[in-house]
Automatic annotation (TrEMBL):
One of its GO terms (cellular component) is cytosol. The keyword Protein transport does not apply. The keyword tRNA processing does not apply. This is Type I restriction enzyme, R subunit. GO terms for molecular function: ATP binding; DNA binding; hydrolase activity. It comes from the Bacteria. InterPro entries: EcoEI_R_C_dom, Helicase/UvrB_N, Helicase_ATP-bd, Helicase_Restrict-Modif_Enz, P-loop_NTPase. The lineage of its organism: Bacteria, Pseudomonadati, Pseudomonadota, Alphaproteobacteria, Rhodobacterales. GO terms for biological process: DNA modification. It holds the Pfam family ResIII.
Amino acid sequence: MSLTPEEKKKLSESDICDLYITPALKQAGWDPFTQIRREVTLTPGPIIVRGNMSSRNKKKKKFADYVLSWEPSLPVAVLEAKDNNHSVGHGMQQALGYSEIMQVPTALSSNGDGFEQHNKHPQAGEDIETSLRLDQFPEPRVLWRRYKSYRGIEGDEQELLMEPYHDDGSGKEPRYYQAEAINRTIEAIAKGKDRVLLVMATGTGKTYTTFQIIWRLWKAGAAKRILFLADRNILVDQTLVNDFKPFGSVMAKIGNRKIDPSYEIHLGLYQSLTGKAEADKTFKTVSPDFFDLIVVDECHRGSASENSEWREILEYFTGAVQIGLTATPKETKDVSSSTYFGEAVYTYSLKQGIEDGFLAPYKVVKIDIDKDVEGWTPPPGTVDDLGNPLEDRQYNQKDMDRILVLNQRTKLVAARVMQLLNATDPFSKTIIFCEDIDHAERMRKAIVNAAGQLAIDHPQYVRRITGDTKEDGKADLDNFIDPESKFPVIATTSEMLTTGVDAKTCKLIVLDKNITSMTTFKQVIGRGTRVDEEHGKWYFTIMDFKKATELFNDPEFDGEAVVIYEPSDDDPPEPPDPPVGPEDDENDAPDTSGTTKLVVSGVEVEIIAERVSFIGPDGALITESYKEFARKQMLTEFASLDDFIRKWNEADKKAAIIAELEEHGILLENLAEEVGKDFGDFDMLCHIAYDQPPLTRAERVNKVKKRNYFTKYGDQARKVLAALLDKYADEGVKTIEDARVLRLEPFDEIGTPVEIIRDVFGGKEQYEQAVRELEEQLFRQADG
């Protein structure tokens, strides 16, 4: 298509793609159906939370104009397009950012005149960046060859990589990090690696990623018999009916101490495969070469321990390729995921997931109770509720609910939990982590009493879900994690829900449990990290009564695990590990420490401090009000009051400025909670950012009416503008900028929207000009 330079500059970016870029790709041999993908969302943008509201920062959304693939499962290049008012290389920095997260060697940019190419893996004599004409776009085999060299893929390894993903017809495909995890794993196996570790934060789709890995290896014939190992029944059952469902009739769950060789995909519990007695070692009923591939879910737990009974399963099938999956690699002197499986071939962290917008951010409410922080020394002669004497010593936070039970403290925690739920949504799914099963039961009782009528109307409102609750507990757990099941709302637990439970809609996690293990802490936090847009779950709250969230400050919180023990004969003695506390236990168990708990009623307790923190842009927790957050964002966007007023007045629609601020997390509904609901958007923003005394919307309207500027309009137009002023006083600027307001009272008495715009104002342009002039009068800074 031949256009003049002036005509070309009038084309949109989409037109440039359709008329120039896509034809150039096709001419170079790229298949538009299997190799060219347009408008690919890589990340949706992080969710910003302040107060009780949230929004996505769409400014940080990552959206690639083109992703080019050798096969649908193998992206090799990314291309950023711009309209012709930009230079050819204007989109290069964006393209480089996208190529970095997708781990492809080629980034390209175009404005329809030609291409700029960045090659991260140049051969001898090649430039890193080159300019290309439209007819010089690289052929697919050129970029595929570069990709293979960049990733170190040899000739006979590529066959395995080209096996496609499973496609269920719904359009669902792996997210960028899932695709990278899948391809890195298959690449490692193709290169002959037989121990592979994948680290992916809770909520990022480890099981779906695993399914695609197994599917591709199984379909390619690289693995014919596969074992998926887990240590909790719910993990196996969830996997069987959800992500692994496409395997259908070739898949079975191992039961009755028998491995049926007629199936190809086997899902099993460690406990059903082994035991202390030789007769319980079901895994030995098949030969050591029976399985080609073993996938170990949550491999930070028992399987990583060298003296674990479970480890013998992996060692028996030592010839099989073994893949370890975890959100939290466990690295202690005696347990090391990395030592067994090797360094992770791919890591996708909680911090990265929140930054990308795939995981829910969190706010933290830290609550200090006087007897925890200041300690409590019982007066001489004090006895517990059973008449047992109390030691003459100071009891502190670590003693609470392990050694000493203050009933008033339990009631206070329950009351504070219900206070938060009642102020937000009393039906928000909530997990309360307690010290042990006894504590979980007492907390259940305290919640029932604190919930009052809610607990009477809904007997299933709160349930204890612990390792000893058997069939009832299984039903309660199934209902708790089912987004469509309203009850139970609150689950009290100690260890049962720390890991592997897909509670998508959990909005509140309460920590009334001493946690010092980083592995346990990450797993507990992981219960809230899933985003569930369908059910309005965008973020979650952590209510911390025992300072567990101080682990957020530990540099290891979201860092990569460090192997601190690699056994060899010549190793020097290692320093002793810190004492292992009950929080490191892998399963719920009653308190067996031999210490009888002292239960004391009647000791008054109170909250002495409460702080609310939010996760900040850098991933660190910050303590600030929403007003202070909005102020910082405003000053980033508008350096001065004059700058803001100028841009506000120049905007054809103020709603556009408001929408832009919302993309930066400034939600005016939230701001109104702190500043006042009677102030308009303009006044709230000027007040919080530049310390201007705010006027209410009604005060601004009265000032306009006193100026009597309506005289230039006819009677009907004056009625419409006066009604618009009243609407502004009631609802704000966005309402009067939306022409649909003309359908409402009192405008409907004057005419239809079309009649008002056409007959009263003389047309759309004149009506919009009248609204702009009305806004100019509203937002004048000086009286006149």
